[in-house]
Amino acid sequence: MGRRLSIWSAVFVFALIASSISAEEAESKEHVLTLDHSNFDDVVGKHDFIVVEFYAPWCGHCKKLAPEYEKAASILSSHDPPIVLAKIDASDEANRKIGTQHEIQGFPTLKIFRNGGKGVQEYKGPREADGIVDYLKKQSGPASAEIKSTEDANKLITDKNIVIVGVFAKFAGEEFENYTALAEKLRSDYEFGHASDVKYLPRGESSVAGPLIRLFKPFDELVVDVKDFNLDTLEKFVEETTVPTVTIFDKDPNNHPFVAKFFNSPNVKAMLFMNFTNEVAEALKTKYREVAEQYKGKGISFLVGDLEASQGAFQYFGLKESQVPLIIIQANDGQKYLKPNVEPDQVASWIMEYKDGNVPPFKKSEPIPETNDEPVKVVVSESLQDIVFKSGKNVLLEFYAPWCGHCKKLAPILDEVAISYESDPNVVIAKLDATANDIPGDAFEVKGYPTLYFSSASGKLTQYDGDRTKEGIMEFIEKYRDDKTAAQEPIKETSSEEPGKDEL
Ligand SMILES: *[C@@H]1O[C@H](CO)[C@@H](O)[C@H](O)[C@H]1NC(C)=O
Ligand SMILES: *[C@@H]1O[C@H](CO)[C@@H](O)[C@H](O)[C@H]1NC(C)=O
């Protein structure tokens, strides 16, 4: 799940955040503390509150963050009490264990350590100096701020943020303790405040008495009350009520936390992409919203994305601007379903068709090339069946990425192999751009580039992980090639008894 989220975040959110960061010169005196494996536990253990950046020297986003982080550290060093910012090179072999221990999956990752490391939270604040300073000042103070007046409330509760307010006649007792525990636990995600009277609060029923928790949000019903103070119930309540009926994905950074939440959800994901400034936009949004409301709590989450902000998503899914407005559904098994050029009146019926299992899955594919007469044949998603599985030939297939250096090195070697087999009608050497074509996950496991698979004429699939030399590859092909008649044998049994195949 975490891994998937980081891919999504890269596609959607961070591309935007990164572009809004301005680079500034680093100052000469370093305020950021440098940690390593020898002193990490010691230093963290000594602090009530310390922030640690897990970084890698080669990481571009880390380099952009560095001057901002240093500037924030310099400002926060004179805060009372001082707030310490530290960093650790988690890509360094010696520090790896610490990174693993803290489940670092990407760089930079910032974590807040409280009480000598007993409490750990992900840093979810901005990445420029002033934003870092504001966020950390708040994080180092009390989890919940007391609201003593309407002015206090209006300062805390805006029309852009989620705020959770506890209302108590007196700030003591089990309900108050549970509220405080909730605030401590979720403080890096939401704003918290407590008040002795609902009359200070800007929205919601004003004739109710505490104890009660009122959640303010900038979407849907805007305010929701809860009176059950069981900690688990409260957490679930917050989790559920803070997901918008329709998540908006555009260039507004206020919406990005919800986008991250959307992709982190275990639900099926429906996404409507369109040009927000188009005439049909409002009609479509309205219809889409109606459907989203209808499917609430039924395992589908809904997002609407502005074309202008969605290039990453278009590339990822292999979509074209000419298909806009479109709905794409990503199911939990990885299958995708596409409705291009959708009209407002088709939204509900198409989602229903999908639910009923009547929409065929959509595959990202390059077009089948008109000519394919180079020694190494080009395979795309749409021709994979014909060239590899149904051809009755022995096919060596390379999954590559256009930007991959090792693939470029392999290309002339594959060419040579292909030329060597040019007079053999039963052997095909082929390649597939795995960034532009969906790959059936039940047949191939492609974790890096290049990945080589051999599909024998009878349909036995074997991954090649030997030397990337002409000799090595040809030896392998000769060992595993067969002819179509071999398919009469039960495939599963023979391949599991196959000699020379490592279980690893
Ligand atoms: C506070 O939370 C605990 C743990 O969930 C629960 O057992 C207890 O009943 C809660 N107290 C109140 C007053 O709801
Ligand atoms: C969206 O539509 C507007 C108005 O028709 C147009 O000016 C704009 O270029 C479109 N945006 C994109 C990203 O296509």
From TrEMBL:
Q: Superkingdom of the source?
A: Eukaryota
Please give a single GO biological process term from the UniProt record: protein folding
Q: Which Pfam families match?
A: Thioredoxin, Thioredoxin_6
Signal peptide (from-to)? 1-23
The disulfide bonds in this chain are 59-62, 404-407
Question: Which catalysed reactions does the entry list for this protein?
Answer: Catalyzes the rearrangement of -S-S- bonds in proteins
Q: Which keywords describe this protein according to UniProt? A: Disulfide bond, Endoplasmic reticulum, Glycoprotein, Isomerase, Redox-active center, Repeat, Signal
> One GO term of the cellular component aspect?
endoplasmic reticulum lumen
Q: Which CDD domains match?
A: PDI_a_family, PDI_a_PDI_a'_C, PDI_b'_family, PDI_b_family
> What is the enzyme's class at the highest EC level?
isomerase
Per its UniProt record, what InterPro entries does this chain match?
PDI_thioredoxin-like_dom, Prot_disulphide_isomerase, Thioredoxin-like_sf, Thioredoxin_CS, Thioredoxin_domain
Which family does this protein fall into? Belongs to the protein disulfide isomerase family.
**Residues covered by the Thioredoxin domain:** 12-141, 353-482
Q: What is this protein called?
A: Protein disulfide-isomerase
Q: Which Gene3D superfamilies match?
A: Glutaredoxin
